[in-house]
């Protein structure tokens, strides 16, 4: 349930904090006062697209915070736990839009993407806009509404995946069938290229070792000469460094008896002796291991030339040859499969059978859901001055199917302009379409799992006794979940459990929207204004009190 909405510098709102209640609430006010701005602010916090036009003039950023009680939304709580976000029974959505167009989103203080914001919002709030009835004229929107109402999205995703798999398998078969000769030529060329690289038997590790060995063999004479010179200087000559260091160390060690300060230097020289002795031993081992080997140098150079020649032939660096071989082998494997037309045909047929099996299962569930939805909407239509009207959902076959299944959905109406069911767009007038849309929304909302429903002027084009029915339907919905309706109809507002009034005030040359909670006489005055316009009489007020009393 939505508990609190805090808005900062959003369109006409500078600072506003709203505390929401349970049940059915009405949001009323003059046209242009900013009622829909509050809905837009909530939609913004829930992840709707935004641009800098939402920032109040002269401000650097807009910010909206929406706090929800998760007790009525286990799906949202589960989503937060899955993403390791702290809940403690409360969810705070925060979204900030800067003047440079950058948008930032947070869930319980943790930064998230706008997409993540939308994901969790789907289980919190359902917003029905004032132009929702227009989307009902589109076949894709009609299909999406039926699938959503029947909770068929998971099966629909399986159908779409099976469709893509089938189309990919069919495309591979068609390509192989039409270009079998070209594939054979490509396969033959790849085959000898792969054989040549396999014969070379080259690896990146070998290339590193070859270069190191070539460098060592090519400079073997210099290496031996340098090692021998070092040994001569350190230990073998008349003025060998090792002997001189030893002499100095012994002399200082003897003198340290007279002055202990020299003992520290003697110890350091003894350490130098040990290091020097280890270095001399290492040089001896090196000179014994390194030797001139012209034959091995020739072999290494021939191997390097073979690798370089292959790299030149295939126009790549030597290091890239192993990767090139792997790619060619993979492509050769694909071409091998493509050459087997019978196997490709069988694969495509199996993919098609899988798609058709899932799509037929989807069709069966759609048929059952369409019958139930048509019956329920028809019942509500009778209460909305559409007596005799019947709502049906036609499932029109799509030849070959598509990613959405084997049929498209068509909303139909019977009994309004003839007995035969006809497409919604060809039968209903503007006012009828609004009422039919409201009936659909009421029915689908009753089956929805979200705890909060927002209706933004969905009662446009409705009045009189029908408006009273709309108010009653929304009041009934409010008994099961939280409902907020932006309305101009007094019959609807009077049915609300609680009511807010939105108005515009001009301060210091700036126009700002503000919201007031209506109770007692203030609510009577607002209902009277909605009934009587500018001149509110005692009779109008009495009528307003009667409407509120009856609610």
UniProtKB/TrEMBL annotation:
<protein>
    <recommendedName>
        <fullName>DNA repair protein RecN</fullName>
    </recommendedName>
</protein>
<keyword id="KW-0067">ATP-binding</keyword>
<comment type="function">
    <text>May be involved in recombinational repair of damaged DNA.</text>
</comment>
<dbReference type="InterPro" id="IPR003395">
    <property type="entry name" value="RecF/RecN/SMC_N"/>
</dbReference>
<feature type="domain" description="RecF/RecN/SMC N-terminal">
    <location>
        <begin position="2"/>
        <end position="504"/>
    </location>
</feature>
<dbReference type="InterPro" id="IPR004604">
    <property type="entry name" value="DNA_recomb/repair_RecN"/>
</dbReference>
<comment type="similarity">
    <text>Belongs to the RecN family.</text>
</comment>
<keyword id="KW-0227">DNA damage</keyword>
<keyword id="KW-0234">DNA repair</keyword>
<dbReference type="Pfam" id="PF02463">
    <property type="entry name" value="SMC_N"/>
</dbReference>
<keyword id="KW-0547">Nucleotide-binding</keyword>
<dbReference type="InterPro" id="IPR027417">
    <property type="entry name" value="P-loop_NTPase"/>
</dbReference>
């Amino acid at each position: 349930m939505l508990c609190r909405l805090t808005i900062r510098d959003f369109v006409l709102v500078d600072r506003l904090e709203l505390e929401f209640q349970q049940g059915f609430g009405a949001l009323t006010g003059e046209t242009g006062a900013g009622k829909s701005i509050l809905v837009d602010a909530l939609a913004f916090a829930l992840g709707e697209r935004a641009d800098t036009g939402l920032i109040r003039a002269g401000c650097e950023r807009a910010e909206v915070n929406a706090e929800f009680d998760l007790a009525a939304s286990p799906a949202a709580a589960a989503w937060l736990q899955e993403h390791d976000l702290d809940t403690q029974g409360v969810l705070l959505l925060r979204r900030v839009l800067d003047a440079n167009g950058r948008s930032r989103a947070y869930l319980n203080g943790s930064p998230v993407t706008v997409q993540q914001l939308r994901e969790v919002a789907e289980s919190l709030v359902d917003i029905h806009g004032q132009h929702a009835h227009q989307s009902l004229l589109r076949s894709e929107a009609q299909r999406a509404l039926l699938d959503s109402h029947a909770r068929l999205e998971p099966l629909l995703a399986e159908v779409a995946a099976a469709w893509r798999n089938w189309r990919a398998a069919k495309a591979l078969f068609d390509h192989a069938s039409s270009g079998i000769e070209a594939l054979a030529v490509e396969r033959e060329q790849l085959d000898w290229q792969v054989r040549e690289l396999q014969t070379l038997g080259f690896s990146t590790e070998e290339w590193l070792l070859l270069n190191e060995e070539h460098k060592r063999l090519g400079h073997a004479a210099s290496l031996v000469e340098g090692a021998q010179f070092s040994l001569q200087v350190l230990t073998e000559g008349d003025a060998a460094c090792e002997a001189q260091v030893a002499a100095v160390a012994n002399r200082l060690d003897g003198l340290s008896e007279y002055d202990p300060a020299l003992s520290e230097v003697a110890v350091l020289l003894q350490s130098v002796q040990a290091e020097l002795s280890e270095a001399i031993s290492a040089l001896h081992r090196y000179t014994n291991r390194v030797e001139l080997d012209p034959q091995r140098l020739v072999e290494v150079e021939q191997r390097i030339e073979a690798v370089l020649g292959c790299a030149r032939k295939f126009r790549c660096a030597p290091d890239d040859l192993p990767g090139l071989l792997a790619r060619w082998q993979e492509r050769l494997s694909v071409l091998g499969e493509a050459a087997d037309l019978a196997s490709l045909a069988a694969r495509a047929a199996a993919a098609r059978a899988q798609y058709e099996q899932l799509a037929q299962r989807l069709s069966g569930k759609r048929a059952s859901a369409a019958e139930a939805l048509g019956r329920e909407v028809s019942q509500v239509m009778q209460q909305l001055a559409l007596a005799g009207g019947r709502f049906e959902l036609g499932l029109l076959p799509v030849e070959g199917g598509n990613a959405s299944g084997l049929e498209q959905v068509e909303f139909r109406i019977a009994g309004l302009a003839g007995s035969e069911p006809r497409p919604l767009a060809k039968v209903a007038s503007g006012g009828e379409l609004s009422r039919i849309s409201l009936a659909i929304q009421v029915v689908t909302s009753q089956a929805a799992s979200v705890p909060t429903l927002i209706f933004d002027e969905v009662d446009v084009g409705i009045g009189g006794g029908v408006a009273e029915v709309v108010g009653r339907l929304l009041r009934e919905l409010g008994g099961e979940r939280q409902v907020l309706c932006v309305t101009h109809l007094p019959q609807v507002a009077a049915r609300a459990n609680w009511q807010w009034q939105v108005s515009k005030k001009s301060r210091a040359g700036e126009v700002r929207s503000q919201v007031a909670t209506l109770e007692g006489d203030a609510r009577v005055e607002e209902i009277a204004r909605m009934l009587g316009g500018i001149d509110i009489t005692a009779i109008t007020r009495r009528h307003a009190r009667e409407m509120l009393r009856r609610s």
